[in-house]
Structure formats: structure tokens, C-alpha cells
């Protein structure tokens, strides 16, 4: 609503009273921003939607394994996605539920849609954090820093230092010219700041909201305007670093039909090994939940 990325926003929730209250609260801010219709409704209210954001899921219970959690969330998606597609068969599905990479693979499986129309928010937020922390160290705006985080949205994500640039220069050379050299300690602090950001935010307020909300709104805008923006988001890949049929984040070209193309950045040997490791972790988790659900390829 604040960005004007959509002309109409419909909130659908199992808790109808919550959806109504949120819709009313957001709608009351419309006079201060853009002419957007904001309302709550059931699945039929999604008719004609160009993008549907899937953010439903359950929290992990004490003593529950990651696969237990994934199985429960897979069942939730199994109930939601057919209803969404019944109302909005031409929509792009944008997955936000965590663990987002595996949930995107599950959504692709359940929906039966072309993989380009099932996108996970992936590392779009991690990339924004990387750019912001680098920019702060260098004393420039994050808009002038080009750097990506790929792989899992999680502990095994890979910060691509080797291809990070400012003003077309490798980040190390730009830092030297700006008289703000990047030390090993600086790099380690930035890596930790990106990789552990969600943990710190969740510890302080219980959840993340504004950063991922901004990232999702930006992806919605790119789809709606057929913008062909490059963003690091997740999609099912035939092969990444030798790991087949895995969902993870790479730079993708985003337009009206979802992912239009994928760009594989040049990687250092260390980055390639880290990406292979990240892909392996995600592949194992996705295969585990598919086996538990009794799905066969």
C-alpha cells in the first residue's frame, strides 16, 4: 500500500476477524499514500489477482524436528494452494513462509504450475542487508552498492564478495579509494551481520516484518509492471553446482510471468564450494519432506 505496488490488496486468513482488522487498519492509512483498495475476504475474493503472497505457516513446537515442521507446513500449503488457484489460476505465487526455499519447492509440487510462476522471496532480504552493511562501512548509499547473497535463505547462505562492486569497481578497490579499507574483521562483521540478522530481530521483537515486507512489495511491483528487475529470489533449478532439482536463490530477472531468466554470477572457488554445500542442505531437507508426505517423482 505504501509503495503503490498494487491497485488492490485482499487479505485472506484462517482468522477472519484478524484479516478484517488488519485490512481496516491498513486502509485507514490509504489517504496518506496511494489510492489502493485494501479489504479482507475469502478465497473467491482473490479472483483476478496477478500475484498471491503465501505467508501462512506454523511455528516450530518444542522438541519438534525441522522435518516435522516442514510436514505440517506442507499440509497447510496442500489445503491453501488449490483454493488460491481455483480463484486466481493465472496468478504468480510468491512464497514467504519459512523455511522459504523448501516451502517454495513444496508449493511448486502442489500447484503443478510452471516453475517460473512459483517464486520464493529467498535471499532478497539478505542481499538488501549485505548492501546496507557494505554501504554503511563505505559511507555511500546502499543504492550504489551491487552485491548479492545466493543459496539458502538461512545459515548456509553465500555472500558473493568476489563480485561485489561500487561504481563499477570491485568493492576492495572502491573501499581503498574511499579511504575506508575493508579489513578481515570488517568482512567478518558484515558476514555475521547479514547471516544472523533475523535471529537478533526475532530475539528482540518476536518476528521480522518490515524488511521482508519491503522485499515482497518490491517483487510484487516488478511483476505488476513487467519490470524485468534482477533480484535474488528462489525457484526450482534443474541443477546448481552439481546438485539436481533444488530450490535456492540466484539472481533472477522478474517480470509479469514471474521469473523470466536466471543469471549465474562468476564465483570464486570458495564461493562455488559454499553454494554446493548450501544446495546439498536444501536438497536433503526437500527430499526428506517429500518422502514423509509419500510423494514420488
What does it look like?
The chain has 297 residues and is an alpha/beta fold. Helix content is 43%, strand content 20%. The chain has nine helices and 13 strands. The protein has helices at 16-27, 66-87, 100-111, 124-138, 171-177, 184-195, 197-205, 210-224, 269-293; strands spanning 8-11, 37-40, 51-54, 92-95, 118-120, 145-146, 149-150, 158-159, 165-166, 169-170, 229-240, 243-255, 258-262. A three-stranded parallel sheet has the order 3-4-5, with helices on both faces. Helix 2 crosses helix 3 (100-111), helix 3 (100-111) crosses helix 9 (269-293) and helix 4 runs antiparallel to helix 6 (184-195). It is globular, with a radius of gyration of 19 Å. The mean pLDDT is 94.
List the helices and strands and how they pair.
Layout lengths: L7 E4 L4 H12 L9 E4 L10 E4 L11 H22 L4 E4 L4 H12 L6 E3 L3 H15 L6 E2 L2 E2 L7 E2 L5 E2 L2 E2 H7 L6 H12 L1 H9 L4 H15 L4 E12 L2 E13 L2 E5 L6 H25 L4
Parallel strand pairs: 1-2, 3-4, 4-5
Antiparallel strand pairs: 6-9, 7-8, 9-10, 11-12, 12-13
